[in-house]
Write a structure and sequence with these properties.
Length: about 70
């Protein structure tokens, strides 16, 4: 779940980078506009992934295994 969340957060961050630099919303463009149901699902999944990623800040780190 952590990796999926990280991938979705990266997708969201890249989308916001494109919006900030070029006023281009890649998700909306790829899926038929911001109001299209699939784009809204993707926006929601990115938001949920962001909420999940907050938990990463508060988890204890396991020491790296020594080989």
């Amino acid at each position: 779940m952590d990796r999926i969340s990280l991938i979705l957060v990266i997708v969201g961050a890249l989308n916001w980078l494109l919006v900030g630099l070029f006023q281009f919303d890649l998700v909306a463009w790829a899926f038929g506009g911001q109001a299209a149901w699939i784009a809204r699902v993707i926006y929601a999944l990115v938001g949920v992934a962001g909420l999940w990623s907050i938990s990463l800040l508060f988890r204890r780190r396991e020491p790296a295994a020594q080989h």
